[in-house]
Specification:
The protein is mainly alpha-helical. Helix content is 60%, strand content 0%. It has a domain at 18-71. The chain has two helices and no strands.
């Protein structure tokens, strides 16, 4: 999953639904490890999505700037004063 179990760990404070935690404990003896694995999977799935979104936004900004450079901004037609 790409996480390094040798990395430094520290306690963190989380607020979780009590009933959900009790139910989860039936399936795992180490809730911290389970949450860490699930969080690592979430982060690994989100990173490429966020990178893709950032790339798309950069492309949009470049295309928008090219349109404004060529044709001007629609806001140029409206004098605020």
């Amino acid at each position: 999953m790409g996480q390094d179990s040798a990395l430094l760990k520290r306690p963190v404070n989380m607020t979780l639904n009590t009933d959900l935690v009790q139910r989860a404990r039936k399936f795992t003896g180490n809730l911290s490890e389970t949450v860490e694995c699930l969080l690592a999977a979430y982060v690994e799935a989100e990173e490429p999505k966020r990178a893709d979104l950032a790339a798309q936004l950069a492309q949009w900004a470049t295309a928008s700037a090219a349109v404004v450079a060529r044709y001007g901004s629609p806001a140029d037609e409206h004098d605020p004063f």
